[in-house]
User: Which sequence fits this backbone?
């Protein structure tokens, strides 16, 4: 059985399911390698518009696999460094996916699972999810996931949850902005599908450009250089075939050609 279940509901949509339900979708070397491979391939598809990241079974992702942790207990520094680099590279590959990634989170979302959740552009969670940055309990730290978790929940929230390793609820995650949409478990698929439909209806090049815009502009000083760059980007897309078609379809009160 593959540790990743890749599904294609349509040419424009991909679903990547963690497929180790017997261990609550915990990470090991194989999961890291297969996630990296899957997202690297999907990122090259010009027709792709959205990816859903989810987990089979009772949990989204419970962190590191116990057997994998036992093996790592005997690693020297160089082996630990190489192992951690694979996880860091996997998270980077997911984060760099050019189309929006929707996270479908249920059950437990612990440790490395928090890293997966944090790289998603839109996070939908059922209201019974438990989140936890549990590394400090084991005398460790959430190093490789920290850039994404800090960006997703903010520094002040991360300062608490990093050091306490406490569990926090889906409602708390929603309040701090980590979770975008909160719903009952039986409404999770409908919420995700609604977002998929919204994204597929938007201009595909515009959606990719919007994702990149948010990444590039965040944290930048609003100076002459940034003003010039943002003006250039809107001019580029206004003059593009998709931009012209979008405006023409709106003014003509007809569907744009990417929906036909």
Assistant:
């Amino acid at each position: 059985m593959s540790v990743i279940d890749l599904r294609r509901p349509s040419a424009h949509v991909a679903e990547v399911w963690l497929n180790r339900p017997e261990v609550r979708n915990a990470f090991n070397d194989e999961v890291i390698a297969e996630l990296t491979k899957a997202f690297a391939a999907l990122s090259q598809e010009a027709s792709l518009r959205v990816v859903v990241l989810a987990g089979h079974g009772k949990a989204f992702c419970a962190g590191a696999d116990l057997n994998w942790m036992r093996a790592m207990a005997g690693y020297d520094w160089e082996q630990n460094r190489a192992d951690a680099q694979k996880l860091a590279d996997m998270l980077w590959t997911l984060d760099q996916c050019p189309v929006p990634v929707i996270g479908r989170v249920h059950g437990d979302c612990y440790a490395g699972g928090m890293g997966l959740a944090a790289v998603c552009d839109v996070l939908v969670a059922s209201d019974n999810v438990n989140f936890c940055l549990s590394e400090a309990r084991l005398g460790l730290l959430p190093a490789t996931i920290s850039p994404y978790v800090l960006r997703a929940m903010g520094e002040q929230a991360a300062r608490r949850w990093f050091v306490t390793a406490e569990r926090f609820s889906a409602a708390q995650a929603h309040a701090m902005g980590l979770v975008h949409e909160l719903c009952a478990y039986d409404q999770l698929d409908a919420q995700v599908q609604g977002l998929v439909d919204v994204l597929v209806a938007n201009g595909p090049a515009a959606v990719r450009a919007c994702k990149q815009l948010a990444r590039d502009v965040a944290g930048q000083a609003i100076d002459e250089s940034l003003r010039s760059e943002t003006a250039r980007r809107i001019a580029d897309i206004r003059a593009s075939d998709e931009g012209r078609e979008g405006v023409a379809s709106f003014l003509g009160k007809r569907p744009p050609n990417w929906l036909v």
Remarks:
- Residues 114 and 257 are 38 Å apart (CA to CA).
